[in-house]
Specification:
The protein is of the alpha+beta class. It is built from 16 helices and 13 strands.
């Protein structure tokens, strides 16, 4: 049977009977199509596989077909390794992990799977085949996930919109003329379009939470050090960057964190150990939480009325659930100095990556190899001294303490995820990083960046859609190691104002 015959015949039979036995499904399952796997989260997909209702190979072929159907409209899946995934799914090489046989996608940035390309969104790295596998990817595979491709990222993750000269623009499935956010915009677009229920994402300034907000998904940035970054990058950007996922359901994010969290040898940061399994937090009563409500961005940018309306609705929802809210000012962080510090950290990371590629290729990078903004960052980084870098790294840690102390009274702090709705594609055009570009970038990161500095967990929860039909996320930041509280709160919000059955028009 070929793959298209499978989609149109076998799938309808298998799913029609299989879903009826899954505890989380019934007459209001949220599945928008009959006879397919749209709306089935990773937790239930794994249950179907364990019961023998579908095989890993069949599920993989369904996801590949779904990707082939939507990707021409999205440009979100940029590197395919279908044969690698088919071989792994078909030959019984899948461990009996919690996600055995569930299709999965990696972001094309900062993470590797041996024998496959990671381009970091850059023309200079096209064709760069990895000679090893990242520790986090090893954990994904140990959990049983079947990785069949990589998703679009802006070059080196340096933009809040997934647009690059290497791969082009990635479109938002809610309205394709708009950005899916960045830098994990490819992953968010494909999860929102139903290709996979959960996908890898990373966050160095908001890059999990921003695309989650733009695409109507749940996105949790964990505590610094909770997931491993090695062995290629043990301390990326002074701990500003961390990996996890974007997902349709809270429980999938929690279960994936259970499968991947914990220190690896030589990790420079140690996150607090959880009180219990993260999945056990989902559905657990959060109690009455003291929540700070922050209306102004940390960076000097105005907040759009759509985002403030969504913030007020989320605050009222929290109060109706028994939580107590108090106003809180933005964390006491500098403006221009903060941008400079991020620039030194990011520029140094780019320089290390580019110079490693130069050694592989046996030639120097040129302005034609990198996008204008990143070429400028690279040139500036060549002039930094060790003292410059260490000075800025120490500032990161000092400001981190300031943010944590500022919010210490609160179990969580609520704010908009973004200062504005998703921007149109082209506003953050990498070929023209002008003043408009800078203002849009600040609008996208104005609330998120503080928690990359502090290392606190923070999540975007997809509770609202504006009048134009674009998702608007609400962000909650917790205490260090406070993923349990955030997951309890997120699950409570998910039950009170469900988003699972809400799908973009493209689906």
């Amino acid at each position: 049977m070929n793959r298209r015959d499978f989609l149109t015949t076998s799938a309808s039979v298998m799913v029609g009977t299989a879903l009826s036995g899954c505890a989380s499904f019934g007459g209001s399952s949220g599945v928008p199509g009959d006879g397919d796997f749209l709306g089935v989260d990773a937790t239930d997909l794994a249950t179907l596989i364990r019961r023998g209702d579908v095989t890993p190979s069949e599920l993989l072929e369904w996801s590949i077909l779904r990707a082939e159907a939507v990707n021409p409209k999205l440009n979100a899946l940029v590197i395919e390794h279908f044969d690698h995934a088919r071989d792994r799914a078909a030959k019984g090489r899948l461990p009996k992990g919690p996600f055995r046989g569930v299709p999965f996608l990696l972001k094309d940035l900062g993470i590797t799977l041996e024998g496959t390309v990671t381009s970091h969104g850059s023309r200079f790295f096209k064709g760069a085949v990895a000679t090893g596998t990242s520790t986090l990817v090893e954990r994904y595979e140990a959990a049983g996930l079947v990785i069949f491709g990589k998703t679009a990222s802006p070059e080196f993750g340096s933009s809040s919109s997934t647009e690059s000269l290497a791969w082009g623009e990635t479109h938002n499935p809610w309205q394709t003329e708009y950005s899916s956010g960045g830098s994990s915009g490819g992953s968010a677009a494909l999860v929102a379009a139903g290709v996979v229920p959960i996908a890898h994402a990373s966050d160095g300034g908001g890059s999990i939470r921003i695309p989650a907000s733009c695409c109507g998904l749940f996105g949790l940035k964990p505590t610094r050090g909770l997931t491993p970054t090695g062995p290629n990058f043990f301390d990326k950007n002074a701990g500003l960057s961390i990996n996890h996922a974007v997902s349709r359901t809270v429980r999938d994010s929690a279960a994936l964190l259970d499968a991947t969290a914990g220190p690896a040898p030589f990790d420079p940061y140690l996150a607090p150990a959880p009180e219990r399994a993260y999945l056990d937090e989902v559905g657990r009563d959060p109690g009455s939480l003291l929540i700070g409500i922050q209306r102004r961005a940390t960076l000097p940018t105005e907040t759009h009325p759509d985002c403030l309306r969504a913030l007020d609705e989320t605050a009222h929802l929290c109060e109706s659930l028994g939580h107590r809210l108090e106003e809180i000012e933005p964390p006491p962080l500098p403006g221009a100095e903060l941008w400079y510090t991020f620039g030194v950290m990011r520029g140094t990371s780019i320089a290390m990556l580019v110079q490693a590629r130069e050694r592989e290729l046996g030639r120097k990078a040129t302005p034609d190899d990198l996008e204008p903004q990143n070429w400028s960052e690279y040139q500036r980084a060549l002039g930094y001294s060790a003292i410059d870098h260490e000075t800025q790294r120490q500032l990161v840690y000092r400001w981190a303490r300031d943010v944590v102390a500022h919010q210490s009274r609160f179990a969580a702090v609520l704010s908009p995820t973004l200062a504005g709705p998703p921007p149109k594609l082209g506003v953050l055009d990498p070929a023209h990083p002008d003043e408009t570009f800078a203002n849009a970038a600040m609008s996208m990161t104005g609330f998120t960046m503080a928690y990359n500095l502090s290392g606190q967990p923070a999540m975007s929860v997809p509770l609202d859609v504006n009048e134009g039909g674009l998702p608007i996320g609400s962000m909650f930041a917790g205490r260090l190691g406070g993923e349990g509280v955030l997951l309890r709160l997120a699950a409570q919000l998910e039950e009170a104002k469900p988003w699972r059955a809400r799908w973009p028009a493209l689906v």
